[in-house]
Amino acid sequence: MFERRLYHHIDWALLIALFALCAIGVAMIFSATSDPTRGNSHLYVTQLYAIGLGTIAMVVTLSLNYRWFTDKSHLFYIALLAVLLYVLFLGTVQMGARRWIPLGGFNLQPSEFAKVGVALVLAKYFGETRGMPAWSDLAIAGGLTCLPLALIAKEPDLGTAVTLIPVFMAIAYLAGMQMRILGYMALSLVLIAPVAWKFALKDYQKSRISTFIDPSQDAKGAGYQQIQARITVGSGGLAGKGYMQGTQGQLRFLPVAHNDFIFSVLAEEQGFAGVLVALGLYLFVILRTLEAARLAKDRLGSYLVLGVLASFTFQVIYNITMSAGLAPVKGLTLPLMSYGGSSMIATLAAFGLVLNVRMRRFTN
Amino acid sequence: MAFHEERRRLGLRLSVLQYVTMVLFSALAMSFWYLQVVQHDRFREMAENNHQRTLPLRAPRGVLFDRDGKVLVENRHSYSISIVREQTKDINRTIRLLAQVLGLEEASVREIVERHRREPSYRPITIVQDSSLAQVAAVTARRLASELPDIVVQQVPTRQYPEMLAAHLFGYVGEVSDTQVGGAADLKSGDIIGQSGVEKIYNALLKGEDGAKHVVVNSTGREVRTLEEVQPTEGKRLQLTIDFDIQKAIEDAFDAIGDFNGAAVILDPSNGEVLGFSSRPAYDPNAFSSGIDRATWAALTTDDDRPLNDRAIQGRYSPASTFKMAVALAAMEEGIITPDFRVSCPGHATFYGHTFACWNKGGHGSIDLRHAIEQSCNVYFYTVANMVGIDKINKWATLLGLGVKSGIDLPNEVQGLVPSSEWKQRVKKEKWYAGETVSVGIGQGAVAVTPVSMAVYMATLANGGTRVTPHLLKAVDDGTGWKPLPTPPPQSIVTINPEHLQAIRDGLFLVVNGAGTGHNAQLAGYDVSGKTGTAQVISNAGKLAAAGNTTKDLRDNGWFPFFAPRDNPKIAGVIFLEHGVHGSNAAAIARHVLDTFFAKQEGRPLPPKPVIVPNLKP
Question: Which ipTM was obtained for this model?
Fold first, then answer.
């Protein structure tokens, strides 16, 4: 199954960049969660375990031929829907949302795995249709995307749900979806937006968006996090305040610093220099993965790689923009760096597929 | 065919995605550049404001000592509870919760916050100056639950006064008012400054230098560590001229005589040092230390007895018979009479067609100056005053200290009045009628004096013509040891013929030790000399008409100015009893004060609290 020569085709550069980001993440989590008055938190240890589990998952996803995964994608997809349904009715409730399945000391967040599942099923679907995707293909693929999306949105976890859309868009785009259709989609989005504002969004979601437009209108409430994020990043300066010396993160002016705002902590403590390093690593990972998509021996492989990359890139860009206080605050974590086991495992597993596609580019 | 076409399109679209990604990352990098490098200074300052607080450390005010080094006014630690609005997420919620936790009315808390609305939001607004332990505990508990991160509990020094002792002399402290802040550069809103009495006049010495504590706080407002602490400098310690035992004697005697308003000023006649000073009714200055509440303030300001009024320096009263010494001295010094000048008193006399009565309807017969003072013969002084004329009386009364400010180091002293022809022309635009001088001869008419000026008057008679400046500050200690202050220069010095002076002193001696009305002040062996004065509050006719028709107290005011011993006096002063009916009641208070003074001088045990039964028969 795993041929020895494949080993030589593993993209070590990408692998190093991925684990470098993980390492930076652990260091930042350690800094953001340390509290001299209460002793150090052990969250970074949990994160290390997650990286370990993620690495195992990665080994699994790159060992088997990716075609095996896409061939079984309908099973993964059905299993995914089943788990999401289970979460919706029987998951544990935290902070007003039902997102987790308790697995003995560890809370699994199935929605994180939905991205991989959807990428697999869409890669398979588009990979088997020849030529430009027809309307009907787009409709079916859209439906396949919307089903888990709706379940996740219902938890509610709108942030994670939204990350499924880039997966669909990217694969459809790569599969040759006409630009015209993309235009229609954009147009319908503009038309739907006011309706969604009126009926679909909850008050807290509305307030997040309206305070983004003018954070000062609610400087102590919903706009607080955004203002604090800007202060955190801006006060970091060129060289940063030094590791564990950030006042904004250390003194908890920034909420959930180890999670949603981990990049702000990096920007505060390591400054613009640190930001450039992290941005460079992320960009390297993305470009390297795009190259893997280009090198893939078949369309299916390209689609799969791009599908996995789409949600990753979307999350990275959105989270970093948000951590600078330049986007509305959403519960979107920064893949590889933010604290969170499910996200780490799912992301590393997904990159296992990327490596998988790349190293099997010569096999038949 | 299609395969290659597809392959090409795929490559093309991947390239598009690649460039889009690169553009987005460049945009991100530029955004961070803008925030972190271009706008860095602005955000750094905001971050510092976020986590650094400057908490004022209030300087303890200087301690006040009496002349023997006994502590009179000191500071105690109390806890203040304040709101720092900078930390507030919802001020209405904070006010509501705080009021509930502290057991205050929401409206009053809101009003305090409203009053300080314009101040910078990092400056704490003090809601409770002197909170109870229960209040502190309640707030602290809430704060730890980070429910009220904007509440600060601080330990502050608070002024502590002896209970009901020389309240008007010490005065009180309070938060600086807006107009006061506007008038002085070194005052800022929230400062505690002296608002009356010694606290006010020596505020600059007493207030000290506030310190500051720069701390790092976390997002819930809790102090994480201290960056810098500038310790406050305690205010200078002041030694007052007040003798605690004399002061206590005054207060005790006033307490003993019952429910009378009045005033007392006791001086060292040689230099003007104030040994005792009281105004009744008093108030509790401690009520102001911790921020006086509205109800107490309202009660103090609307009380008919006006307890905040310092009668000793602000009350102007008719001196009545106590004025007679000034008339006598004027007559002798101007060479109009000698001490042996005699007047025949048939119980009344007629001047300019008007009949003036003596208090003794039977008359005093032929009487000389000494006995006219002893028996307070009105006819004698009508006659003499008429001979001297108003302007010479005014000249001598002024030289003795009446009708002018004493210059005491207390704020808002009021000037009395001894009329003159110039005064009448200036104020009433009328010429002085010689007939008016007759009533002035017995201290009636327009004459009005303050108790403190009456004390100076007696001190001047006691020391032989030096109008000493009454003063309260004896020495200052700024931490390097006590530095005595020079005695303030006298207001005026006049040379008085010793024979004339002796005649008056003899008369005053007889008031107390002879057939006069001052027996109550008699102290065997100490030659107490004094003069009673009983001033009508309303005319006899008016009194009859008003009888039973008014709740206003119409009883006469009683004076007893004194010095002792007669020759070479060591103490001079005055006791004034509002509606005290007789000067002799005031004399009873003076006796206890003098008794205490001499006992202390001689090292005898101080007399116990006196029992005084006032004579209330008109």
Answer: 0.93
